[in-house]
Specification:
about 50% helix
């Protein structure tokens, strides 16, 4: 997915908020904004990928402040997700077929993708997470195609997104293992946005579910495949199905061409550019199945 002109405002606003989270002083704010403007002058072109620009922005913030802006919010998100997990389990138990169980698990995973902070025009507080489970609908629904691919699969790669969200994702992960699939789960190599890292995955119990828990080796928004270590690229290309959570993975992986990899994107379209790219209204939930 390519960047849109309005993404510029979001990049700038989010940098300000992140710097404020870590108590940045006047000097830190000026350093962040000066370096960010310089980067955008060079990189903000119609062919840029928004997640790549967001990656560069976050590196600038961390360099100037020396801290992870979302450390505390990630901890709170994990706590909130544990509280609503029983309700999610009850929702899944109401399924009357294996396909319906898969469908409900994917919808729970999409609801978890609502956990996001500082997207311009998107307002989310952790006390709303339970409400996301009460109104689970998909505006874009390719789950029948994804289920058919799942039945033909042996190895699945699960690309996680946010902290908190990963707790709800464990329900879908357990289902994949119960089907006898070999499951690899990948989290971010180091902090970026409020994305899950190894610490979050271990707290969620992912290491006790997956056959292999790995990192992308990157601090990138989404998976920037060309920059990933060779084992991660090979795991991606050799998987029968990739489940990719969130807008960042959607933005980066839709730029991959000719790989022949089948991907199920599970996400909430929290910004207008992503919504337009998907062909849905902003705020819609989407399950998009593509062969890249």
């Amino acid at each position: 997915m390519k960047v849109e002109a309005e993404c510029l405002l979001c990049l700038l606003e989010r940098a300000c908020r992140q710097t404020g989270y870590v108590g940045g002083d006047r000097q830190a704010f000026f350093q962040v904004m000066t370096e960010l403007l310089d980067m955008l002058h060079k990189e903000f072109t119609p062919e840029a990928v928004p997640a790549y620009l967001g990656t560069l922005r976050d590196r600038i913030v961390r360099k100037a402040t020396g801290r992870d802006p979302y450390e505390e919010l990630k901890r709170q998100a994990n706590e909130a997700a544990w509280k609503v997990l029983p309700a999610a389990e009850r929702f899944v138990l109401q399924a009357d077929s294996d396909y319906e169980r898969f469908r409900r698990l994917c919808m729970v995973a999409v609801a978890g993708n609502s956990v996001e902070f500082d997207v311009m025009g998107y307002s989310f507080t952790l006390d709303r997470l339970g409400g996301e489970l009460e109104n689970l609908t998909l505006r874009l629904d390719h789950l029948p195609q994804a289920y058919a691919q799942l039945e033909a699969s042996r190895e699945v790669l699960f690309l996680t997104d946010n902290a908190g969200e990963i707790v709800l994702d464990t329900l879908l992960m357990r289902y994949l293992k119960q089907r006898g699939l070999t499951l690899t789960v990948a989290v971010k190599g180091s902090p970026v946005l409020n994305d899950a890292t190894l610490v979050d995955a271990q707290e969620a119990g992912v290491d006790r579910i997956a056959d292999e828990l790995i990192t992308t080796g990157l601090d990138s928004v989404g998976l920037i495949l060309d920059a990933a270590p060779k084992p991660v690229r090979e795991k991606f290309t050799h998987s029968d199905l990739v489940i990719a959570k969130g807008m960042g993975n959607y933005e980066t992986l839709t730029e991959v061409k000719g790989a022949g990899v089948k991907v199920l994107f599970l996400l909430k379209a929290k910004c207008a550019p992503v919504a337009r790219s998907l062909g849905v209204e902003r705020g819609s939930n989407a399950a998009l199945f593509l062969e890249l």
